[in-house]
Amino acid sequence: DVSPVVAGLIGATVLVVSVSVTVFVWTCCHQQAEKKHKTPPYKFIHMLKGISIYPETLSNKKKINRIRRDKNGPQEGGRGNLLLDAAESGLAGPDKAPEGPPQVEQLPIKADYGDELSPDQSLTPGGSKTSSPSSPGDDVLLGELTFSVDYNFPKKALVVTIQEAHGLPVMDEHSQSSDPYIKMTILPDKRHRVKTRVLRKTLEPVFDETFTFYGIPYSQLQDLVLHFLVLSFDRFSRDDVIGEVMVPLAGVDPSTGKVQLTREILKRNIQKCISRGELQVSLSYQPVAQRMTVVVLKARHLPKMDITGLSADPYVKVNVYYGRKRIAKKKTHVKKCTLNPVFNESFIYDIPGELLPDISIEFLVIDFERTTKNEVVGRLILGAHSGSAAGAEHWRQLCQSPSKAVAKWHSLSEY
């Protein structure tokens, strides 16, 4: 006895609900199918004997430490450093930009400063030091590196497997061994920077780690160069640079399958760039108050560091050294999207006058990156370890003209 109007409404409601449920189920199934065939949203996958490490899972430092404890337990070194090394190589993002520098820094000067290196010995990227005791003309055997190159056509991905190294030199005289690891970069863009885990106390390391780089068309392989930097980890100072391997892909054809390669590790050739830009700084010393004021004024003509090649987001890190020991470090604010930043930020340090001859100040101009590892644009050292005549003259004027601010432009060198 239901009226036709009520029956019509009930039928229409059932029809609308049925269509809505059908459309929802179809949409969910379609999205799942798209995810299975979609290129992964990350730049590379790190494979260590079947274990995949995805960059998006490494963004939380607490999570990294928790995974390390679960995997490593109370043991040290070895495979337990894998996730932390991957995060430090740029997967977990850069350091947070500084909120602002404090005005006064009291230097914790002590009588004994250990074995930490002075800034003039840290001339290689990533804070590494060159440590080959031989002269440039000597033929030093640095070992060999074995790796393989492959290409995944469906994913447009370059696959590089770092397998092992043989005959590495002794870098730790105490243990008569080394703690080797390898940093790898794809040149010339330097967009992909990765590194292996550290293997403890061995001269014959077996890494067996695979890095898969997505978004590299096969037609561009001939223009790329693989750069392997072989280092030895040092817990108490900067890591030792053993050597490097440069492999142009113009002579490698992975189209038919994996290509196995063995290359000799060569002594690193530190080439200075034509121009890294200039930095203007001001120094003054008050002998009565025994206080030094360092002012980072501005920079100009900085090289383009962004992937797009349009600009940079620079800031300046100031390191103060006493002899062989770094005793203070501060940072300026980040200046967005400019190659000619104006900082005008000052730092004040309490330094006794008798210590001035042993003080060095290192300025690192760094390009801030939100999604990848920060990159050093250029470097300047003033003071006891100044590497240029202009830097030595600036420091001499500071010492001879107390209570007077001395401002000068300096060319930046490669870090």
Automatic annotation (TrEMBL):
Its main location: membrane. Residues 113-137 are annotated as: Disordered. The keyword Membrane applies. GO terms for cellular component: axon; cytoplasmic vesicle membrane; exocytic vesicle; plasma membrane; presynapse. InterPro entries: C2_dom, C2_domain_sf, Synaptotagmin. Residues 141-263, 275-410 form the C2 domain. The chain crosses the membrane at residues 6-29. SMART domains: C2. This is SYT11 protein. The gene is Syt11.
